[in-house]
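FW: tagging you since you asked about this chain on Friday. Here's the raw sequence from the shared folder, copied in full. Didn't touch anything.
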Amino acid sequence: MAMPLGCGIMDFMSDETRARLARASRAFARLQSQLDDARTELVAAIVEDRKAGGLIEDITAVVPYRQTQVNRILKDAGLTQERKPRAAHDAAA
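HL: got it, structure written out here
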């Protein structure tokens, strides 16, 4: 019994497209470690700026992360305070 030589879905793909995808895949794999290093450096810079007294809004304005991502990074670093739930806050007042 003969084995199929590729995925049946990809049979329509031209050799040019297949080569382009292979090139892009290799480039991505090559740059993945650089991207991971850049993310690590960015997280360290965010944490350091916050430790130096930077406001979350100011940090968010200059990094390619949303404020929720910056908050998550700072929470993981132990640099945020949890707010009391609104009901508990109202009961205490």
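FW: The chain has a mean pLDDT of 86.
HL: agreed, and The radius of gyration is 24 Å.
FW: great, closing this out.
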